[in-house]
Design brief:
It is a single chain. This protein has 815 residues and is α+β, with helices and mostly antiparallel strands. It has 19 helices and 26 strands. The strands form six sheets. It has an eight-stranded mixed beta sheet. It has a seven-stranded mixed beta sheet with strand order 15-20-13-12-22-25-24, with no helix packed on it. It has a five-stranded mixed beta sheet with strand order 5-4-3-7-10, sandwiched between helices. Helix 3 (141-148) packs parallel to helix 5, helix 5 packs parallel to helix 8 (249-279) and helix 12 (465-474) packs antiparallel against helix 16.
Length: 815
């Protein structure tokens, strides 16, 4: 007998070894073809998605000046909730133009024309990957082996013959042992992961008792599964040695179990720290924070090891119906580990800011997103916080709010031009004009120093929404003076009403309620039960990620750390030849109407053959308020700025409404020009056709104009501009992070990347599409939310909760 191993064919349908297209399980379920490339380009969807989900995109020619409809072809109802389809779009020869995609999606009907290769897919439900075992008597060793490793009949027969030749007379026994081993491992690992999920959720919610029991159970189950593998190792190794097609499957299954064990150990570190803190009630908040940081530092290596093990698992070895679930779990846990790392960074930074550096004085500014400003909201009030070695020495909150500094400011500065609609003099309450938070923070410190004659070591801005987060963790706060109970649900509207319409405002103390409540909130915060520290840190880290909290420190090392964590609120510096978009709203004389505004940002990039790019951006603002509503029913007047790559050329802009010129207030002739403003806003020009103001700021080009939206109406403005750079032909060796991904693409491809920044205080819906030149196709995308078509890609509409980066690799289909 020849010792040469059998040559295994690779399927042209799914790229897996061990079968061909005729016997491919995917083909049998009427899937459309999968590329034989190691990379699989597909669209992800499940049964419970709405029918309008655009998983097949036709980016086609349309000369309409509004977004064109996107045709969607939706499969028939799936029988498995975790079913995923893999398909690519039919090609199109239509010429692409600078068109705008439609926000509405047309759902396919049975009468719609369907490309021939999709007919069977749309009309035939998928068949199961494997049939359920009907009775115990049906469980032959052949059925059991097929159930464990679903192979095609020809390869299965080859495997059986091979095993019998290697271990004659023992094949049935080996397979029975294999099935028994698999059953034990499956039972223990399933129970382990269920307990692990319960443990992790309980830890995040500070339920120590539940976390303790679930963590112990998970550890026992994973240990039992690993022990079973160790005991049966010689059986499995014999089978794997005899059957080459099983190579790597045992390793992948072991990786899954090892990952579960590592996560269990990591959770145990956190659990022990919380249990110790719960027992010792005499420890300070700072001490509990230090111990939790130490526990996180101990757990993170185990979490990292778990991530590495999960990434090493070949998902193809799992039963088909569990593959999507495993992939979702792997992605979710990887995100959880990232969150824990950020929380660890946050706890260390809090110790650094409030702990070990002696006396520090911070300027706290409270921003109201209902009146949106560049860094998150109008500065209605502020506080001076003095801390020393982790303890609060003094907290001063002026009852008059930010206007208390007006009479103390000796300087008369000309404000940024749009702000002259409300004030001819630039003052502290309008200091957050720049969307780059460090620049605005420096201006706040300047105004404060010039008004009070004292300096501060940093600025921490806190949006009103943070109060909701805190109250959801520490519980309600009682205001005895006003006979109020403030909960996470009632605090903001109650405080807003008191600030705007109570007798305290008539006495020129509109922010008195904040002066009264803030010390109580800080006391509750520093007295947070040890078990609630982790949920508190997780919530604060999320607030920092969504820019509800931003910080600037004069100490360069601290500021550098804050910036590296992405918590500084600075304008990002895009990479060379990278598209960039930052939409910045500024409410001027629109009262609190932003609480009723829904905003959608629609972006399109059209790439030409020479690599030039023309972007079109539509901003849609809907005012959901009514004219009779106090504060919120006011017409919304927004000075809107669009920050784009430096050197971009405005092609056209439309949809704007200018305030009446007579409402602007001209500064006195002797007012001084502010040096910071002059240095930041350079090369100011005006587009004659639209009145759009064009400036260079922070290494970007900015387009600014006015948008007015009355209650019950919708406004829409459009910017079209050409980027200053060409997408170059890229050699994969110049992009080290993509070396492995780009290997199949050879030497010729282009990379289009889009960095979109979120403005603090507003969550807009965002969508984008990138249209490619003829004979170019997308080959890889960085995000599973990007839908791929033959002539472009589309980012489906999603809430812009934080800064996002999307990357698409494109390659010519022919030279």
């Amino acid at each position: 007998m020849s010792s040469k191993k059998p040559q295994l064919r690779r399927c042209t349908e799914c790229a897996s070894a061990g079968h061909n297209r005729a016997t491919c399980p995917l083909e049998s379920r009427a899937h459309t073809p999968i590329s034989a490339s190691p990379l699989k380009f597909f669209v992800h969807h499940v049964q419970n998605e709405p029918a309008a989900s655009p998983h097949i995109v036709n980016l086609k020619n349309n000369t309409s000046p509004i977004w064109q409809d996107i045709e969607s072809k939706t499969p028939t109802t799936m029988t498995e909730s975790t079913f995923h389809s893999y398909h690519k779009l039919p090609s199109t020869d239509e010429t692409k133009q600078a068109i705008l995609p439609s926000p509405s999606i047309k759902t396919a009907t049975k009468n719609d024309p369907v490309p021939e290769k999709f007919n069977s897919y749309l009309t035939t439900p998928p068949t199961p990957v494997k049939q359920k075992i009907k009775t115990e008597t049906d469980k032959t060793w052949l059925d059991l082996f097929h159930n464990l490793f679903p192979l095609k009949p020809t390869l299965l027969s080859l495997a059986i013959i091979t095993l019998i030749l290697v271990v004659p007379g023992q094949a049935r026994s080996y397979f029975e042992n294999l099935q028994e081993t698999k059953d034990v491992i499956t039972e223990n690992s399933t129970a382990g992961f269920l307990a692990l999920q319960q443990s992790t959720v309980a830890l995040k919610n500070a339920d120590i008792d539940t976390a303790a029991g679930a963590t112990a159970l998970a550890g026992d189950r994973f240990n039992a599964a690993l022990s079973t593998i160790e005991e049966k190792h010689h059986i499995l190794q014999t089978i794997i040695t005899a059957i080459p097609i099983l190579h790597g499957e045992l390793e992948s299954r072991e990786k899954i179990l090892l990952a579960g064990q590592e996560i269990t150990i990591g959770n145990s570190y956190l659990l022990n720290a919380l249990q110790n803190a719960k027992r010792d009630t005499n420890k300070t908040f700072s001490n509990n924070l230090i111990e939790l940081s130490a526990a996180l530092a101990s757990a993170l290596p185990n979490y990292d090891a778990a991530v590495n093990n999960l990434q090493a698992v070949d998902v193809g070895i799992l039963p088909y119906q569990y593959q999507a679930q495993f992939t979702d779990f792997r992605n979710l846990f990887t995100a959880v580990v990232t969150d824990f790392k950020n929380v660890n960074d946050l706890s260390n930074t809090l110790q650094e800011v409030f702990g070990g550096k002696g006396f520090r004085r911070y300027l706290l500014v409270f921003q109201n997103p209902s009146e949106i400003r560049a860094t998150g909201g109008f500065i209605g009030s502020f506080a001076i916080l003095d801390v020393n070695n982790g303890k609060i020495d003094k907290l001063d909150i002026p009852a008059g709010g930010s206007y208390d500094l007006q009479g103390q400011l000796p300087d008369y500065l000309i404000p940024p031009l749009p702000l002259t609609l409300t004030n001819k003099r630039w003052e502290f309450q309008d200091a957050n004009w720049f969307p780059d938070f460090p620049a605005s923070a420096k201006k706040m410190l300047w105004f404060f120093h010039r008004s009070r004659g004292i300096t501060a070591d940093g600025v921490i801005s806190i949006n009103a929404t943070v109060l909701q987060r805190l109250l959801s963790i520490i519980g309600p706060v009682v205001d005895l003076k006003r006979d109020l109970i403030l909960t996470a649900e009632t605090a903001l509207p109650t405080i807003q009403t008191i600030v705007e319409s109570s007798t305290e405002k008539l006495n020129h103390k509109p922010k008195q309620i904040l002066s009264d409540l803030t010390p109580q909130l800080l006391q509750s915060l520093t007295s947070t039960p040890p078990t609630a520290i982790l949920p508190l840190l997780i919530s604060l880290e999320d607030a920092l990620g969504q820019k509800e909290i931003q910080a600037y420190f004069t100490d360069q090392e601290t500021e550098s750390n804050i910036t590296s964590f992405g918590w500084s609120g600075a304008l990002a510096q895009a990479q060379p030849n990278e598209d960039y978009l930052f939409v910045v709203n500024t409410n001027i004389q629109g009262e609190k109407s932003d609480a009723k505004i829904k905003q959608t940002i629609s972006h399109q990039a059209v790439i030409a053959n020479d690599g030039s790019v023309v972007d079109t951006v539509i901003i849609t603002r809907e005012h959901t308020g009514t004219p009779t509503e106090p504060l919120y029913g006011t017409p919304n007047l927004d000075y809107l700025r669009l920050y784009v790559p430096a050197g971009s050329t405005l092609i056209s802009a439309s949809g704007f409404t200018w305030p009446d010129e007579k409402n602007f207030r001209a500064p006195e002739s002797w007012y001084k020009t502010d040096t910071d403003l002059q240095n930041i806003e350079t090369e100011v020009t005006i587009d004659n056709s639209s009145g759009t103001r064009i400036t260079n700021e922070f290494g970007k080009t900015a387009f600014g104009n006015w948008v007015a939206t009355a209650p019950g109406t919708t406004s829409q403005v459009v910017f079209s501009y050409r980027l200053s750079f060409l997408l170059p032909e890229t050699n994969q060796s110049t992009i080290s992070m993509f070396d492995r991904i780009l290997a199949p693409f050879g030497k010729s491809f282009k990379k289009y990347s889009l960095l979109v920044q979120k403005q603090s205080g507003i969550t807009s819906d965002f969508e984008s599409q990138i249209l490619l030149p003829p004979n170019w196709q997308p080959k890889w995308t960085s995000d599973d939310q990007i839908l791929i078509a033959d002539n472009g890609v589309r980012v489906t509409k999603l809430p812009l909760t934080n800064d996002r980066l999307w990357i698409t690799i494109i390659q010519p289909t022919k030279k």
